[in-house]
Structure to design on (79 residues):
């Protein structure tokens, strides 16, 4: 596993392409979720809170900080 120096930043709409690719890699393992492919932006955006969307950018990346990971909050019912 490659060691990185990461900067944590708020996720921007322009980050979705890279976030979706990482999401897809996780889904391909068959362990990450019940779906088989990552959703399109509209569905993902609707299912996640506006706050708590973060990306980890690789500080060492020559391309200006490739996204190495992400986290996002989704609402859950209060039961």
């Amino acid at each position: 596993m490659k060691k990185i120096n990461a900067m944590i930043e708020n996720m921007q709409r322009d980050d979705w392409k890279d976030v979706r690719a990482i999401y897809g890699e996780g889904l391909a393992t068959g362990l990450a979720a019940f779906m088989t492919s990552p959703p399109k932006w509209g569905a993902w955006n609707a299912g996640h809170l506006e706050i708590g969307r973060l990306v980890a950018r690789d500080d060492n990346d020559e391309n200006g900080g490739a996204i190495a990971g992400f986290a996002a909050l989704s609402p859950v019912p209060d039961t």
In short: The CA atoms of residues 57 and 67 lie 4 Å apart. The first strand starts at residue 6 and ends at 10.
